[in-house]
Amino acid sequence: MLNVSKAFTGFARKMEADLGSRFKNLDNIVQSISIGRQKDPSSGVLGGFKIPLGARSNGVYMNCDSTVGKPYWANPQVPGLRVESPPAVAARIQDALASGKTEDSIKDFVKPFMRYDEATRQYVVTPVIKGVNDSMLAGTALPYWNIGFLNKVFKQPFTTSFAKNLVSVEGFGNPWADALAIFTASFEGFGRVSNAAKGTVEMNSSNPVSSEIGQMMTDVVNLVVDYESSIEESMRATGQSGNFLSATAIADRERYANMVLERIHDALIYFGNAESGTQGLVDFAGEDSYTGTPLDDIVNDANNTHKGADVVAAMNNVIGEFLRENFYLPRKLKINCSTYVMKAMLNTTYSDEFNPDSPMQTISGRFDTKNSVGGGLQTCEWTLVADPMLDPETPFNTDTSDLFIMTVPEADSAMGEQQGLVIAPEPLKQFIVPPMYQRGGFLYTMIKRVGGVLAPIEGTVKVIRGFGYQGE
What we know:
Elements: E1 2-4, H1 9-22, H2 26-29, E2 30-37, H3 55-58, E3 61-63, E4 81-83, H4 87-98, H5 103-109, E5 110-117, E6 122-129, E7 168-170, E8 179-190, E9 207-230, H6 231-239, H7 244-271, H8 281-285, E10 288-289, H9 295-299, H10 307-325, E11 330-337, H11 339-346, H12 359-367, E12 372-374, E13 377-378, E14 381-386, E15 401-411, E16 418-419, E17 423-425, E18 428-438, E19 441-451, E20 461-470
Parallel strand pairs: 1-2, 4-6, 7-17, 10-20, 11-14
Antiparallel strand pairs: 2-9, 3-18, 5-6, 8-9, 9-19, 11-15, 12-13, 15-16, 15-20, 18-19
């Protein structure tokens, strides 16, 4: 199922096991998945690994600005991308904003279309007003006027992963870059305190302050998935306006393919790939073994009447030590844990006899928001998310102990506040090339381009093994 370059052979075995356990019908929907660095060789393809040479100028959809909170058409500074709004559409949007409508409500009636301008070598995004589909469902055995329909499709649920909770996803401005880089700066030097006369140069000498600019770089990895839509369902969807079943099936197949790519990206964020030199969070921090009692053992101790208090004490100790190591500079703390840790945080009481609050309720009172404690000091805001990918005995974590990962996305400093301290590069979030006609239908190709994790500040990532669960 996975076609990978030589540098990703080990990663592919783990990824196939992970996808096979999560998505049972993957082979029926997705034809193939490809993973490789941009520079890796690929037979018959000249635009980069598994990217056709003409893909850049012939895409049917692109989303390349993945800055959190900003839609891709709202950032005019992105090189290679410009927005052209027809006057009528622009006036409609301005009227909606003037009437107090939110951006989300405007997105409900405006749809962006993208084309490639060969003259300027830019992608042009044009907003258009969505059409209205209002016809009835057709093709049923009974006349539609004798059937009451609930226009909703109940879909098979899937677990997801939340690696992006720990990082800042950045677009880097160039969707087709071969490598990505960030700049770092270090300083040294000091002054000297002296009560000698100012004219005495020797008594007032100091080590001149100097700085050095450096770079951190990562190769770009291409993630590619092929999926197919049959001719029959495409004709039903386009020939019968409002046939929501066929249209939903086609749209959901695209969402399913994107979900697979997102899970591959999350695995790279967590664990990286040593063969290709793609670094993940575990590579940056290494692993510290937890020496205390695992939270699952506390929960399962039948004689313990204050399980929640013990869980709170363990969590406070782990968080407090991480903050101390960072000199209490962090203003935000992101934590991803296994399902064992989340169970202990939510499903135990602080005290069976005196306090029914869960550990989550107790700790959230201290870390939920950035509260001022006087003197310009603030507490640290935190986020705790459970991710099954960090559970023990999974394809990427084959150990019998779970993983507990903390990152610092934002910190204060004497040089000014810094944000986005742990970066997951994503120069191209989603790109779909024109469908290829074949006997069974239309073959679509979805491309996603990512880089390894970049953490320029030492100590902003911490990985603890065995905090929630330790097996035999």
